[in-house]
Amino acid sequence: MPQPPNPDTNKTCTHDWCLIFIAWLIAACGTLGALFFGEVMGIAPCTLCWYQRIFMFPLAIFLPLALFPLDTKVIRYALPLAMLGLGFAIYHWLLQLGIIPATTSPCSQGSSCSEVSAQWFGFLTIPLMSVFAFALINIALLATLIREK
Amino acid sequence: MKQKTLFIAAAIALLGLFIGGTLMFKQQQQSEVAQQVQVNQQALMRMHSPLIGAPHAKVTIVEFLDPACEACAAFYPFVKDIMAKNPEQIRLVVRYAPLHQGADQVVAALEAARKQGKYWQALETLLSTQQQWAINHRADVNLALPILSGLGLDMAQLQTDMQSSSVQAIIEQDISDAQALGVNKTPSYFVNGQPLQSFGYQQLAELINSALATPEQAMTK
């Protein structure tokens, strides 16, 4: 069945395009931020950080590929990554807060997951920023998914 | 197309922010290191440190090294070469930052060899045979000692001296000085009290050459 022409294509920002663009923007910030902490500031990423990187970095690469031309099917690939990343981020954050005891942490050597290596404003740690980033990406992607239905 | 413009602008802005942030952070870090070194100048040289070259040379290179560090072994001949090209002008002070596992034992062996007057031979031998006793970044003094025995040292005496409190005190002092100076990599060089900020043969040669070129009176040691 031929698709009807999208009347929105000439506008700067159709809703779906905008949502995926925002998701990419957050993923790109998260990726560059992680690289900044790791490579520039020299804070060694712990095991849980690595898992969150695994789910964040690909989003920064393939979300923009779905922007030109707009392909909302990308949600099918992006949403599982974003959800798994959110899971790891929440787990990591709770671990740092001490709500989950550190003994259940998978980290044995290198930098410790429960150790707080950077903190701003008294509460904003790297895992919490990761929680925010993954949560926003999930919201943007879910919003696109709901609009599709 | 407008969407493309928006995307490209955002991508460029993010990259620019990243690169700008990196440059700013590095610069701030460098000035902090310089400040830390300035405050802790007395930690740079100690009476006990091994010294080679003219005693009143114009240029003093303080090198924090780990005998098990590969880069230290690679840089050592380079420094010796610069010293040989500028006789009477450069002296080298060796400090320890034993960062590798087991390296403090090898440092103890070096200091014990110094008590028998064979320090520089022992250091050069250990650096050139490093692959044989420092395997996978782990220093094994039991593999290093047989190599040292080839220098004609009294090995029984050496083993006793390794445990002596004077040798242990030197190692402890050097480790605490390294911490005070923010030395967390080896080799770390200080040329006339100035840290080598960007690591490399070229950068080290430039730092030494600029120290050689500056007029004499600046030295207040």
From TrEMBL, chain A:
Is-annotated flag, keyword Chaperone?
yes
User: Which InterPro entries does the annotation name?
Assistant: DiS_bond_form_DsbB/BdbC, Disulphide_bond_form_BdbC, DsbB-like_sf
Key word Membrane present = yes
UniProt KW keywords: Chaperone, Disulfide bond, Electron transport, Membrane, Oxidoreductase, Redox-active center, Transmembrane, Transmembrane helix, Transport
Membrane-crossing ranges are: 17-38, 50-70, 77-100, 120-146
**How does the record classify its membrane topology?**
Multi-pass membrane protein
The record's principal subcellular location, in a coarse class, is: membrane
Which Gene Ontology CC terms are recorded?
A: membrane
Q: Where found in the cell?
A: Membrane
Q: Name one GO biological process term.
A: protein folding
Please give one Gene Ontology molecular function term for this protein. Answer: protein-disulfide reductase activity
Q: Which HAMAP family does the entry mention?
A: BdbC
What's this protein's family per the entry? Belongs to the DsbB family. BdbC subfamily.
The name on file for this protein is: Disulfide bond formation protein B
Q: Which organism is it from?
A: Chitinibacter fontanus
Source organism lineage? Bacteria, Pseudomonadati, Pseudomonadota, Betaproteobacteria, Neisseriales
TrEMBL record, chain B:
Under the heading InterPro entries, the entry gives: Thioredoxin-like_fold, Thioredoxin-like_sf
Entry's Gene Ontology molecular function annotations: oxidoreductase activity
Occurrences of domain Thioredoxin-like fold (ranges) = 49-209
* UniProt cross-references to Gene3D superfamilies, sorted A to Z: Glutaredoxin
Q: Does the keyword Signal apply?
A: yes
Question: Pfam family of this protein, just one?
Answer: Thioredoxin_4
Q: Which UniProt keywords apply?
A: Disulfide bond, Oxidoreductase, Redox-active center, Signal
Q: Which family does it belong to?
A: Belongs to the thioredoxin family. DsbA subfamily.
Protein name (record)? Thioredoxin domain-containing protein
Its lineage opens with:
Bacteria, Pseudomonadati, Pseudomonadota, Betaproteobacteria, Neisseriales
